[in-house]
DNA sequence: GAATCGTGGAC
DNA sequence: TGTCCAAGATT
């Protein structure tokens, strides 16, 4: 047993979790159900669902005979509902093809729907004591820091490296405890935000800690380039270029809504529009622009193409009014301007 | 390789 | 309040 596993197990004996519902009566079936529920789901959330589920379906055979609707009903609120469908389907396959016993070989286990390598390893390690590595989010974080593994764990090469370390450190005895220990360490000390390295049993050997770079591991998922957002604005300015009013195109976000002229006169019109539209303040492209100048004001139709601040959809802010044009434009407006307004604001079928 | 699935928590 | 993330697997 290497020092990683030895120190981890010594820590587990003192601080590890031993009272979780699926740790009592650790049968393959119960461990399986728990592992499926725990995929991308935190322990505190899972516990009541696990209790209800195993109370209703104490055995694999009972689950296999259940109605799909009832299985889903017990899952409702937990999310990732394909997990429930896969669990039920796998139970039926096991009842039919494996005499009702979960297969004890990892390759057979992984052929069942919803069971990947890490889940299969966890089931075999925790319920049967088989020497199988796991690589869940906790283990990834612990191993990435301990060995200073660079790169986003979602990448194949990084994942392969982490699996190698997971295999290397998995001891030949106390497998169930070790598996629980590495997850407990990740969940309680080696956390994503502020790891408690002072209390970590691996502290002196952790490469990230030695370098003081704990926060860099594991590397975050690369950011996607933010989407381009295009909008056409109808803008009314006075003779000095100050904004009077502007109206969004009839379709798309804030379609047809009029904006109040609340911007600081010293602020450029473009900056104000960018801010209002949730656009990033860098390198906007101002497309075709049509300006009509009249005695007291000028009217501009401008297309702005700009990278969004966020990838998420911008929501209606609710501080726009529908009835301003009646007051300010429709009355006493030069006929050419009115025609221009109607052309721009008229609904577009596309 | 990237998108998708879902809900709740942390910052 | 937005963003990322959590005991991943599947397409």
From TrEMBL:
The record's annotation in SMART domains points to: ENDO3c
Q: What does this protein do?
A: Adenine glycosylase active on G-A mispairs. MutY also corrects error-prone DNA synthesis past GO lesions which are due to the oxidatively damaged form of guanine: 7,8-dihydro-8-oxoguanine (8-oxo-dGTP).
Q: Which cofactor does it need?
A: [4Fe-4S] cluster
Q: Which domain of life is it from?
A: Bacteria
Cofactor binding comment, as recorded: Binds 1 [4Fe-4S] cluster.
Q: What is the scientific name of the source organism? A: Thiohalomonas denitrificans
**InterPro entries of this UniProt entry?**
A/G_AdeGlyc_MutY, DNA_glycosylase, Endonuclease-III-like_CS2, HhH-GPD_domain, HhH_base_excis_C, MIG/MutY, MutY_C, NUDIX_hydrolase-like_dom_sf
Domain HhH-GPD, first and last residues per copy: 37-188
KW Lipid metabolism (keyword) present: no
Output the GO biological process annotations, alphabetical, semicolon-separated: base-excision repair; mismatch repair
The UniProt similarity line reads:
Belongs to the Nth/MutY family.
Q: What name appears for this protein in its UniProt entry?
A: Adenine DNA glycosylase
Concerning CDD domains, the annotation shows:
ENDO3c, NUDIX_DNA_Glycosylase_C-MutY
- Per UniProt, what is one Pfam family of this protein? HhH-GPD
User: Could you tell me one molecular function GO term of this UniProt entry?
Assistant: adenine/guanine mispair binding
Record-listed E.C. numbers: 3.2.2.31
Reaction it catalyzes:
Hydrolyzes free adenine bases from 7,8-dihydro-8-oxoguanine:adenine mismatched double-stranded DNA, leaving an apurinic site
**Which keywords describe this protein according to UniProt?**
4Fe-4S, DNA damage, DNA repair, Glycosidase, Hydrolase, Iron, Iron-sulfur, Metal-binding
